[in-house]
Amino acid sequence: MAKNERFKMVYSQGTLDVTQILVDTETGVNYMFHKVANAGGMTPLLDKDGNPVISPLANN
User: Fold this and answer.
1) Which residue, among 42, 23, 44, 22, has the nearest Cα to 34 in the 3D structure?
2) Are 17 and 35 spatial neighbours (Cβ–Cβ below 8 Å)?
3) I need a labelling partner for 29 at 20 to 30 A (CA). Which of 9, 22, 38, 59 fits?
4) Predicted TM-score of the model (pTM)
5) For the chain, what is the domain count?
6) pLDDT digit string (tens) for 9-47?
7) Quick check: 60 pLDDT over 80?
8) pLDDT value at position 26?
9) CA nearest 36: which of 21, 13, 14, 16?
10) Is residue 9 part of a domain?
């Protein structure tokens, strides 16, 4: 992994239909990425109230 990467993958499932959860290492915001064949998309992961899911950031 390269030094100072902005996004860290914390979850991944699937091989052809891929779903991943990525965390922005600067803001802590979680994103869901889903890919099927040549199409994919990324969106903020939201909680039940519609607020973005934010992970605690590790002190560097």
Assistant:
1) 42
2) yes
3) 38
4) 0.84
5) 1
6) 999 999 999 999 999 999 999 999 999 999 999 999 999
7) no
8) 95
9) 16
10) yes
Per-residue pLDDT, 58? 77
Tokens of 15: 């091989």
Helix, strand, or coil (residue 25): coil
The DSSP output letter for 57 is: P
Q: What size, in residues, is the chain?
A: 60
- DSSP bridge partners of 33: 20, 42
- Considering the domain boundaries, does residue 4 fall inside one? yes
The tokens for 43 are 């969106």
- Residue 56 inside a domain? The answer is no
Exposure string of 19-35, with b = 16+ CB inside 10 Å and e = fewer, is ebbbbbbeeebbbbbee
| Both structure tokens of 17 | 């239909």
Within-domain flag for 3: yes
